[in-house]
Amino acid sequence: MDESRRSYPEIRTLLEQRQLSARELTEQHFRAIEQRNSELGAYLWLCRERAFAQADAVDRAVRARAPLPPLAGLPVAIKDVILTRGVKTTAGSRILEGYLPPYDATAVARLEQAGAIILGKTNCDEFAMGSSTENSGYFPCRNPHALDRVPGGSSGGSAAAVAANLAVAALGSDTGGSIRQPASFCGVVGLMGTYGRVSRYGLIAFASSLDHIGPFGRTVRDVAAVLGVIAGRDPNDSTSADVPVPDYLAELKKPVKGMKLGVPREYFGPGLDAEVKAKIEAGIRKFGELGCEVVEISLPHTEYAIACYYIVCTAEASSNLARYDGVRYGFRTPGADELDAMYRSTRGRGFGAEVKRRIMLGTYVLSAGYYEAYYRKAQKVRQLIYQDFVKAFQRVDALVTPTSPTPAFRLGEKTADPLQMYLADIYTVTGDLAGVPGISVPCGKSKQGLPIGIQLMGRHFDEARLLRLAHAFEAAGGFEL
Amino acid sequence: MKITRQDVEYVTALAHLDLSEEEITRLQRELDSILTYVDQLNRLDTTTVAPMAQVLYQAPPDVALRADQEGKCLERPEVLAAAPDATDTFVKVPKVIER
After folding, report:
1. Do residues A410 and A149 lie in contact, with contact meaning Cβ atoms separated by under 8 Å?
2. I need a surface site. Which of A19, A156, A210, A319 has the fewest CB within 10 A?
3. Which candidate from A322, A374, A384 shows the least CB-CB separation from B49?
């Protein structure tokens, strides 16, 4: 097997048997990044000092035969919307250029306490707003499977880094599909936990009722291991849930036979690419072979999800992004002689086109006279979408759908029409609106060699079942269908 | 058109965004197209549906409250270091009020 495609258990064994040091492993990753990043654009910023300090600490523990923490020596990449103390964090935006956060996100702190080695910060759509990573304020990221294609987004850099062996695992964020869709486009595993499963302390806020942090990996096991470390209540995030975190690695070993899976017919309508449809149907048959019972179900309000989502997320974004005003951090337009003019010109120059579009739409739908017609209406439709899922999960244990209607599209293909780009999230925004967990795993490739992802969604706080199903699917060869 | 140029200009003022003429023209067109798309929500009768702000899990009502004790906060020099303009104790901004 290609050494650079190692999964964490192999790395762990090599470290424990002293056949590889954490420092060597880290050096290998930085060398690979040097070779590939200029064409891929997966990383925005690297943190060599911090990475080697952590690697040396792991190596000392190995030499001392001290007990190793659960992720000792795991090289990880962190999406640039997640704060890392003293390491540049910009959310892919010029308005935060050069920002050095004074604290770590809880997910980052927990990863490091568990022994993971943070290599750097990955490229993304500015403030996680986009589905292709073309909205990065710095440079676009490309798909490692086809350099003329996007890696998906907004966590495109994290997905591309894991796919191209520039990290073993990564953190991303998902507000409308931003973990699952790039995982699908890049042929890796990406999980969004239940709303509240993972602390968002230190996540740069985009839409607070929809934002999630979650892991990427090349195997389901690696994703389960990272989730187990970052999940759980955090006093610094009042929305993080006080719900016990199961031992996800132990859960993987449990059988899937007899589980009841629902296939929502609304996810197979017009707009679904024929090759994607064929692979997803093959994937569904695979679950049948694994002993799962598959039934067709209906989530009747699915067609309203994109409209609902783009009102809710832009409204929340317009409020969250009010804080970028050139006062406390980041960029300030020089020369303004009056405070209000400084705000307006800093924001006008610091934000990119998609961010401005969403701030404008969100401000409009919240403004006097339109609040009821747009924002309140969307909140009511959100309730209906949520109820669809509640009803479905009374009948079935999990849902199986495509992750995205198409494989990775070409750079520039959807940039001219914002609505076309928004529709790339049609199968993923529903999970964010309903607060349910979702995972995308590889399900074969198109004739052109582009990865296709299959999505599983589950009941609130039932990530363990999704991981079990995904792991059984992987073990049965589902990734190479 | 669902949104006029005057609407766009009014929203730029609410949002504290300086936009160029070209941006205003483009945004009027784009916002109009998005607002036309989201109009489909009006096909649904939601008169008896309760609005949902966020998905809540089953928990006691005081789950987010901590003990009323002073905690550690960030160090001032580290926070001020991130500001574009600051003294040892304050961030500096352009003139707010006329003298």
Report:
1. yes
2. A19
3. A384
Would you say A337 and B95 are in contact if contact means Cβ atoms under 8 Å apart? yes
pLDDT in tens, A339-389: 999 999 999 999 999 999 999 999 999 999 999 999 999 999 999 999 999
Q: Does A423 touch chain B (CB under 8 A)?
A: no
Q: Which two tokens stand for residue A472?
A: 């059984």
* Average pLDDT of the segment spanning A405-430: 93
The whole-number average pLDDT for the span A155-179 is 98
Single out the residue of A80, A47, A44, A306 nearest to residue A173, CA to CA: A80
Q: Token digits for A398?
A: 């999990």
Q: Which residue of A has its CA nearest to B39?
A: A307
> B19–A348: do the CB atoms touch at under 8 Å?
yes
Centre a 10 Å sphere on the Cβ of residue A39 and count the other Cβ atoms it contains.
Answer: 11
The CATH number corresponding to B5-43 among 3.30.1050, 1.10.20, 2.60.40, 3.40.50 equals 1.10.20
C-alpha to C-alpha distances, A434 to A268, A295, A332, A424, A457, nearest whole angstrom: 20, 21, 38, 18, 11
Q: Are A345 and A336 in contact (CB under 8 A)?
A: yes
Residue of B nearest to A310 (CA): B38
Residues 362-391 of A with CB under 8 A from B: 363-364, 367, 374, 376-384, 386
Domains with residue ranges and CATH for chain A: 1-481 (3.90.1300.10)
Q: How many CA atoms lie within 13 A of A122 on its CB side?
A: 37
8 Å CB contact between A433 and A402: no
Q: Which of residues 285-324 of A touch B (CB under 8 A)?
A: 301, 303-304, 306-308, 310-311, 318, 322
Q: What are the beta bridge partners of residue A398?
A: A261, A458
Return the domain boundaries, chain B: 5-43
Q: Cβ(A275)–Cβ(A407) under 8 Å?
A: yes
Phi and psi torsions of A131, nearest 5° = -130, 20
- Return the SS3 of A289: helix
- ipTM for the predicted complex comes to 0.95
> Quick one: what percent of chain A has pLDDT higher than 90?
96
